[in-house]
Amino acid sequence: MPRFGVRRFCGAMLAVMIGAADPAGATETDPFRSVMWDDMRALVLGDAPFRFDDRVKVTAPASAEDALNVPVAVDATALGAVERIAVFADMNPIPRILDYRPIAARPTIALRLKLQQATAIRAAALTPDGVWHVGGVFVDAAGGGCTSPALAHGDPTWERHLGEVQARAWPAVQASAEGQSKSTRLRLRVRHPMDTGLAPGIPAFFIETLVVRDGDGRELARIDSHEPVSENPVFTVEVTPPADGRALLVTGRDNNGTEIRASVPLAWRQSSLETSTR
């Protein structure tokens, strides 16, 4: 075989071998061309295969009016089955925001977070085949969200309300398949300063875990949150409790061991507002 032909053949074989070893397209170009992407991949995804995927929808304002409270919504339902959703911000000093496990829930979550500067905000959804599907949005921000002290520290009574939960649950708009339990939209707010540890003289103090269970204690969804989640965090998820379920249980704790606990009625009425103190 001519030398030129051998080179072409070897090159083609190498390309086939790389493609076979990395079917998830890990060599795809970052759509945001972020200088931090390689670091973010190693931090959040490790060595797992991934692909940039428009089916993972991340929505947020183009410009953050309040760097302490940036609304973000993630929707990965177009992927079908999803085991985990990791949300992170490339340019934040603490990039990890949360890890969501929709055990018996739709792969969607809405929250508010803190931004230190303009950055790509990403969501990576892990499918059962072990591939991460990465979507994102770029948000411009004046900055300072992660290094500002929580407003709670200006209120001398804030510790009395620490861990209080306010929540509502109501039937989701999406219709369920015949014979299946209907999904329920749950929106919950927890009183907590969510200190990042980056403000002078204030150590990190944040909610680590929130778990949503049905009345029998079966786990429906789990949120493992990090410091950049906004003060008094608000989360919206869609879970699927049993058809005869009457309440959802919310439990959790922060990094100081403060316990969080609330019961949320499923038969929502205008007066239904569940409040629980630690």
From TrEMBL:
Task: Specify the domain of life of the species encoding this protein.
Answer: Bacteria
Which positions carry the signal peptide feature in this UniProt record? Answer: 1-26
Protein name listed in UniProt: Sulfur oxidation protein SoxZ
Supply the alphabetized keyword list. Signal
Keyword set includes Lipoprotein: no
What range(s) does the Ig-like SoxY domain occupy? 44-146
Query: Domain Sulphur oxidation protein SoxZ spans what residues?
Result: 180-263
**What's the short name of a Pfam family annotated to this entry?**
SoxZ
Instruction: Kindly indicate whether the keyword Signal belongs to this entry.
Output: yes
Record-linked InterPro entries? Fuse-rel_SoxYZ (IPR030831), Ig-like_fold (IPR013783), Ig_E-set (IPR014756), SoxY (IPR032711), SoxY_sf (IPR038162), SoxZ_dom (IPR014880)
Query: NCBIfam families annotated for this entry?
Result: fuse_rel_SoxYZ
TM segment ranges: none
Species of origin reads Skermanella stibiiresistens SB22
